[in-house]
Design goal:
Largest sheet: 7 strands, mixed
Shape: globular
Distance between the termini: 53 Å
Structural class: alpha/beta
Radius of gyration: 20 Å
Helix content: 25-40%
Low-confidence stretches: none
Number of strands: 16
Length: about 325
């Protein structure tokens, strides 16, 4: 099977009534995936707290934490049949925890964290205590002040978690965070991407733990994997995984090109003066967030030897 095909429009019901979605619209790939797996009554609304079956092996719960950084909320996935792995338990929210426990119905054996940012991993300790499940992932560096996990298993790249015959393979994908993993359900070739790839927007790369070079390398690595569908940490399922990865690589390199054009020949530009030129296609209210990724671009270009920084002022390095 290749990347999820696109075809004719698909109809679904939701809060705005019956609608038809084409291949370029956000709900389309999810609607196609669920119908391929015999789940015909799948609506288009993303509703927190309501379990949504995506295929025979995967159920999604959305946490009630919508926002600029989280979209409709953080996605939590229950993966398996008789035994379950919980991917990204989400924020420490009593309603969300209870919804997870109800949907898991005593079958949760593993808790897997794509990374330790608070919106993805805060509830891990509570759910571990209440279920006795094993907690697996990778701790953040001591310099990073996000959630700290008491891990039962430290994951390494390529490790697998067995779920009574189903295999989840851990893929180390640093970039957004140094301890970021994606998880590949090998039976269906669904990749749980956490914040490596989000539906509807690009992710923030926030140095020093976030690293633009590592992020681009991690995206490139996805091109080598057998993938049919992406299950992101926020938003709908995403089709055509390899094309999505290629598009994100092109986007980041294009943004780097805008940095290059905006830099003066000698040092003098600050991050603040570069920001409106490099992110002129982004609303000004989002510029404080974009500044983090701009810093990551500048750090990469300094490592590449094409940018100089002196006292917080940046310029293109001119060959003698």
């Amino acid at each position: 099977m290749t990347d999820l095909e696109t075809d004719l429009p698909l109809s679904a019901s939701g809060s705005a009534g019956d609608r038809s979605f084409g291949p370029e619209e956000a709900p389309y790939a999810e609607l196609r995936w669920t119908r391929r797996h015999g789940i015909a009554a799948h609506g288009y609304d993303l509703v927190p707290g309501v379990p949504r079956q995506l295929d025979p092996c995967v159920t999604r719960l959305i946490a009630p934490n919508p926002g600029v950084m989280t979209g409709p909320g953080t996605n939590t996935y229950l993966v398996g049949k008789r035994q379950l792995a919980l991917i990204d338990p989400g924020p420490e929210d009593a309603r969300h925890v209870q919804a997870i426990l109800a949907a898991g119905a005593g079958r949760i054996r593993w808790i897997l964290c794509t990374h330790t940012h608070l919106d993805h991993a805060s509830a891990a300790a509570t759910i571990k205590r209440m279920t006795g499940a094993q907690l697996a992932g990778l701790s953040a560096p001591d310099t990073v002040h996000d959630g700290k996990l008491s891990l039962d298993r430290v994951l390494m790249d390529g490790d697998t978690v067995d779920l009574d015959g189903l295999a989840l393979r851990a893929i180390h994908t640093p970039g957004h965070a140094s301890n970021h993993f994606c998880f590949l359900l090998e039976e269906t070739r669904m990749l749980f991407t956490g914040d490596h790839i989000m539906q509807g927007s690009t992710v923030v790369i926030w140095p020093p733990d976030g690293n633009m070079r590592a992020y681009l390398q991690s995206l490139t690595r996805l091109l080598e994997l057998p993938l049919d569908i992406l299950a992101p940490g926020h938003g709908y399922l995403i089709g055509q995984p390899h094309e999505v990865a290629r598009r994100l690589i092109r986007h980041r390199l294009s943004r780097e090109g805008k940095v290059r054009l905006a830099l003066p020949a000698h040092g003098g530009a600050t991050l603040e003066t570069l920001l409106p030129h490099v992110y002129d296609d982004v609303a000004a209210m989002l510029h404080p967030i974009a500044a983090r990724s701009l810093q990551a671009h500048l750090d990469k270009m300094i490592e590449d030897g094409e940018v100089l920084c002196t006292d917080g002022r940046y310029g293109r390095k001119i060959a003698p």
